[in-house]
Design brief:
Elements (H helix, E strand, L loop, with lengths): L1 H61 L5 E3 L6 E12 L2 E10 L11 E7 L5 H15 L3 H14 L8 E8 L2 E6 L2 E5 L5 H10 L6 H7 L4
Antiparallel strand pairs: 1-2, 2-3, 3-4, 4-5, 5-6, 6-7
């Protein structure tokens, strides 16, 4: 009888040990999971901090003066000459800025940059037609307009509200269009840059007030 009692006691102790062992393993598992979660959280915070730091460095690196641009030729900084807004009735069409080597305008002195930011969506064909109309107003010959037409078709993209089209002229033989600061079209006609800029800068322009603002004349 005593032996039976001892056997029962031993089995109970074994079960109690197994239960306690299982509980210990569970507790260690929970603690381990919490520790692992904490390590992952700390790692994520460190990574986020590094990303923020890198972003700040990049932003600081990309900061530029809105009153200047850089010419491709010898990396020369150009200075803003003037700025103007083009509107038709109550509609804002675009804002334009002119840049030169010294912040002053002199006809056909390069490098020179004309930067246009559009406030409306405009199809390329409409931009081409409007440019040709301006050339006709300036008295550009039909033969020259036909000569420049293909350049226009290649140079004018469809523009969306907020797009910037930049015309950079280092020399008459080295001029290019950029769309949102990305090279878009390299001009291959040495007469085209002057003819294109004349739309805004010629004394015969159809928008003399806009011209005066661009060239810095009050």
């Amino acid at each position: 009888m005593k032996t039976l009692h001892n056997d029962v006691k031993s089995q109970s102790e074994i079960k109690l040990y197994q239960s306690s062992h299982w509980l210990v393993e569970l507790l260690f598992g929970v603690v381990g999971a919490l520790v692992l979660t904490l390590i992952v959280a700390v790692s994520i915070n460190d990574a986020s901090a590094n990303d923020t730091s890198n972003t700040n460095v990049t932003s600081d690196t990309n900061v530029t003066n809105e009153n200047s641009v850089t010419s491709d030729k010898n990396n020369v900084a150009l200075i803003e000459v003037g700025t103007a807004d083009m509107s038709l009735l109550w509609l804002d069409i675009y804002s334009a800025k002119l840049f030169s080597i010294d912040g002053k305008y002199q006809a056909n002195r390069f490098p020179m940059t004309l930067d246009i930011q559009y406030h409306r969506d405009i199809d390329a064909i409409d931009l081409v037609d409007a440019t040709i109309e301006q050339w006709q107003h300036l008295g550009v010959t039909k033969a020259n307009i036909e000569l420049y037409r293909q350049q226009l078709i290649n140079a004018w993209p469809n523009v969306k509200q907020g797009d910037r089209l930049t015309f950079k002229v280092n020399t008459p033989e080295d001029a290019a269009f950029l769309l949102n600061d990305t090279p878009y079209y390299q001009v291959s006609n040495a007469q085209f840059p002057e003819a294109f800029l004349d739309i805004w800068l010629s004394e015969k322009t159809s928008h003399p007030k806009l011209r005066n603002q661009l060239i810095g004349v009050n």
